[in-house]
Amino acid sequence: MTTVASGALIGFLVGLGLVIIVYRSPRARRIHLADRIDPYLRDTPTPSRLLDDRPRGVPRPGLAAVEALARPLLADAAGRLDRFLGGRAALQRRLTQAGGRTSIEEFRVQQVICAASGALIGAFLLALRALLGVGPPALVSVALIVAGTAGGVVARDYWLSRAISEREDRMLLEFPTIAELLALAVTAGESAIGALERVSRLTHGELGRELRLALADARAGATLVQALEGIAARTALAPLVRFVDGMAVAIERGTPLADILRAQAVDAREAGKRQLLEAGGRKEIAMMIPVVFLVLPTTVIFAFYPALVSFTVIAQ
Fold first, then answer.
1. CATH (domain of 240)
2. What's the distance, CA 77 to chain centroid?
3. Is 279 domain-assigned?
4. What's the domain count of the chain?
5. Per residue of the chain (316 residues), what is the pLDDT tens digit?
6. What is d(CA 215, CA 227) in angstroms, rounded to the nearest whole number?
7. 9, 33, 123, 127 — which has fewest CB within 10 A?
């Protein structure tokens, strides 16, 4: 490593540190209203843990200080990323479709962590180039830092889409069974709310969780129709939306609910069969790729290679 490169690297690190110090100094940092009134509210009683439904993990002793130091920086970066990307309403809907276990702020923090992880790859290559003189050129390393940062943000968004797709697939698998259980409960004489309560107690999947949320909304003061429409608003599955609409219409107009539930269950079974056939057709086409490009050429080689060797020997 040359003297010029060493001086440039040291100057860059010192300048970056000075910029961070000046930027995060009390005079330059904007003080929020919450920071101003926080010292006067610290003597307030702590709320009950029974009201906090977030999972509580036991932090490791060695990481508690690091987490306390990194939390404000991550929150600030997540806020800036949220203002840059926007679309809070669409993001909230997608998080709700994924199960609603992650808030927007937590998702943005995860995106910041993924972006920093992606940028570290390019930074490592740039440092390797500056210290040892090996690796890609400096311009390529800087481009890799930018690409890694953007790739981390996009990767976290892609994982969210995968989580939504997997959850919807699980709900589609549970839907026919739950529809039949509801039809049996209503046929046996249960009311709509009683059937929902019984089925929600017996099931433990994603759709059962949605039924429990609907019952919680109904107990909180919403009508049963509004609670059922909340299930359709939290999901984007067409069969489930039709099922909820059918139940809502039957409850509002007084039509026989058991017949509608049985018909919906039959439709769900038929839709599951069609999806299974479509998946089988796609897998069959995908299986042709190794057969055509791997198995068939190997078979042709084994079939014609002895004849080719024999012709070569005879020609000599």
1. 1.20.81
2. 20
3. no
4. 1
5. 567 667 777 888 888 878 777 776 666 666 667 767 776 766 555 555 555 554 444 444 444 555 566 677 777 777 777 777 777 888 888 888 888 888 888 888 888 888 888 888 778 877 777 777 666 676 777 787 888 888 888 888 899 889 888 888 888 888 888 888 888 888 888 888 888 888 888 888 888 888 888 888 888 888 888 888 888 888 878 888 888 888 888 888 877 777 787 887 788 788 778 878 888 888 888 888 888 888 888 888 888 878 777 777 777 6
6. 7
7. 33
Residue type, 47: P
Query: Whole-model pTM above 0.70?
Result: no
183 is a domain residue: yes
Q: What are the Cα distances from residue 131, in Å, to 4, 9, 56, 67?
A: 12, 9, 43, 31
- Tell me the one-letter amino acid at 13: L
Token pair recorded at residue 46? 């702590």
Residues of the domain holding 202: 169-272
Amino acid letter, 44:
T
* DSSP-assigned states of every residue in 145-214: HHHHHHHHHHHHHHHHHHHHHHHHHHHHHHHHHHHHHHHHHHHTT--HHHHHHHHHHH--SHHHHHHHHH
